[in-house]
Amino acid sequence: MGIINRLPEKLSSRIAAGEVIERPESILRELIDNSIDAGADEIVIEIENGGIDRVRVRDNGKGIKEDDLAVIANRHATSKIKNENDLDNLHTLGFRGEALYSISSVTKLTLTSFDSDQKRGFSIVIDNGERSEIGKAAINTGTIADAENLFMDIPARRQFLKKPSTEANACRALVTSRALANPGISFKFYSDGALKLNFDKASGLKERVMMYYRPLSIESADVMHLSAKAEDYSIDIIATQSLVKRSDRKEIRIYVNSRPVEEYSLVQAVTYGYGELLPGGSFPYACVFINDNPELVDFNIHPAKKEVKIRNINDIHHSIVVMLRDGIERKIPEIKPDTTGNLFENTAGRNPSYTPWQQIKTDSDRAKVPGGFRSGGGIKVSENAVQYAYSSRPQDNSWIEKAKEIRREREERQAEREKQALKMEENAEKPLFRYVGQAFNLFLIAEVDDTLYFVDQHAAHERIIYDELISKKNVQPLMVPIELDTEDDVSSFLDANAGIYSRLGIELEKRDGRWYITSLPSVARDIEKEVAAFISLNTGDEKELESNIFAILACRPAIKAGDRIDRYSAEAILEKVFRMKEPACPHGRTFLIKMSEKDLRMMVGRTN
Known about the structure:
Blueprint: H1 9-20, H2 24-37, E1 42-48, E2 54-59, H3 66-69, H4 99-106, E3 108-115, E4 120-127, E5 130-131, E6 135-137, E7 143-148, H5 155-158, H6 164-181, E8 186-191, E9 194-199, H7 205-213, E10 223-229, E11 233-240, E12 252-256, E13 259-260, H8 264-274, E14 286-292, E15 297-298, E16 309-310, H9 313-327, E17 334-337, E18 344-347, H10 363-368, E19 379-381, E20 386-388, H11 399-429, E21 434-439, E22 443-448, E23 451-456, H12 457-471, E24 475-483, H13 488-497, H14 499-502, E25 507-511, E26 514-521, H15 528-537, H16 542-555, H17 567-577, E27 592-596, H18 597-603
Parallel strand pairs: 1-8, 12-14
Antiparallel strand pairs: 1-2, 2-7, 3-4, 3-7, 4-5, 4-6, 8-9, 10-11, 11-14, 12-13, 15-16, 17-18, 19-20, 21-22, 22-23, 23-27, 24-26, 25-26
């Protein structure tokens, strides 16, 4: 007699349910997705005891027909697809026909819905797989799905649930995730009768995301909305400016066709896009919403649909990197008083980084400024573009008055041009800054117009050295090349990657199967042996190698924190700092902060 048995239907259904329903959050995920697919624009969620005792979702969607209630929650019963070709063109969050079937196998599930054809409500109860008769119900719109007593009939599964507060937090996080991707839907979330989340309908993605960010003390001015559109996909990114950061990747959220997904390569694209704008170990807040051609996306690989295969993922990855690299600005931290004028706080600044010694008023003036941080003076900055604020001409039906107005505007523009030209000449004659002194043997203090700047001397000098390395200004050929003692793997690596070192002024040459250093930057004087030892022993990631060799070439020769430096050296560093396009060390850390005269006066009570 054989040993293979056919499992009873109830047992097999519970095994199948275990793949989809792991905890209350799993139930909530499936019920919310069904409400969204039903076209609801109002969804109310209630949970009790962390969702272990009850998960209830009420919506105002299109409802369920009485005839459909008779087959709903049977295995693979779905209205979302009809044949296998539909799997290649999915426009709904649900499609497997497993969610309600799985929920009803491990809970007491009550479905109450309004039948728009019959203009009345109906209800059915499915208690751990046992179906009731369909009855009439008092409901006039949408659907209510009520799942009670999760795993009550499976004690072994129930005991592995987390404590109610943990399960409730997971449910709350899920509601937030779904709300961010669906700004046109209002979400209310109650836990044990208390309202915990209330997302009103929003006009767009940024408004919805800001509902989540504001309680985290992130202001709208610190958040950018970037958009791009390609042939098969479009991308919207709601992301914070460079000063708003955290120590983990948890707030980098990726959505593909409105589904939150776990796709590390796209999270990586976000971090690459910020690049050196954030120091090592820091990450932004970012929500990336991707709408891709359904034929190029496959969600049919994970019961919870958290994973996805994207055929054009390389193109999307590149687009995200470019959008962030070109769209996120570096902000200079500013010391400002709080509302009482007494305390200090770091703010992201409300204007773009600017050339401190020159207020730029017009586009032609912008071209005259020698490098430097760009100004916000006279410029109105929107989220996606820079617009100049010109006064509009008044409408007048009299052509004589119009002519006078045109002439007056022409004269005013000419006077403004002459004024700007005079100011440029005056600025050309005065120094870019006034050196104030050194504080704590670490900060160089400079005065520019009505602003004080505090510059980290080590990070600033490190960046100056780095720029010199990249430009190869002081590369010196060696009279006697330095031979490298390389193993075969390092030698093979250098065959393909010698350019990593060449970019920093270290020229390598292979002769008769052996490698030699033939040129070094001048800062490598006295540390030639360290450089040679590093190159002889290391292979691996290009960015990591470049960072490590830079640490040898630039970090060590740079002026250190604690070094006392003379006025001449300090001014030489500041001169180069104020001509940099971005005031950041090679590791991405912004190395200066500023404080305005007005704010300083306010802090000491001198308001006039």
